Amino acid sequence: MEGVSRIDDPIRPLGERHSIEQQVAESLRRLIVSGRLEEGAPLVQRELAARLGVSQTPVRAGLTQLEREGFVVLGPTGRAVVARLTREDFEEIYAARYGLEGLAARVGAAAVGAAELNEMKECLVHLRDAARAQDVDAYLSLRWDFYGACYAASGRKRLVAEVERLYHRSQRYNRIVLSSPQRFRESVGRYSTFLAACRAHDGEAAERVVQESLRWAVARIAGELPSEAEA
Fold this sequence. Notes:
This protein is 67% helix and 3% strand. A three-stranded antiparallel sheet has the order 1-3-2. Strand 2 (72-74) and strand 3 (80-82) form a beta hairpin. It is mainly α. It contains eleven helices and three strands. The chain has two domains: 4-82, Arc Repressor Mutant, subunit A, CATH 1.10.10; 87-224, GntR ligand-binding domain-like (Four Helix Bundle (Hemerythrin (Met), subunit A)), CATH 1.20.120.
């Protein structure tokens, strides 16, 4: 398993002192989600601090934040490793998304306006391009922009923030879901139906589309993931 010292694309040094812990956490989060820091990879504070050009204190704080988010596991000695992907973790994240994201879709679709609908329509064009190119990074970013435009229309800031947190928390699993051209085609085919529900201000239909999409993802990979009991 590769550790931090063998990353081909090193973290860029951080020159700004503003929210340094957030910058450290975001840099590490990107590396973990992209797979450049693989599950189980050790995260040595001294090495990370040297690469980021900071002291070990903000690195320690950044790792603690990533532990709260579920990306990092800290052992009793403080040794940090990238969290492993497991069936239980996947099912729990998606169960939470099923309820909260369904609610966000329902209340968002009922409140969405012309500006949000235009934004979603434009996002859908780019989503289809990303699906054809199998550009998973662009696709996942655009997918949040697409759904997020609807969710934000609800005005439920606390709800949308939690849904976004769970969405980003599931990104490593989403990359596995989108592991073939066929899965890209199946995934992108749902957005037109969701957009139509939003145009009709049909909250219940929008909720169904989102929840069906989440069930589809669970059915595709849950059985492929190792159980925590097998670790």
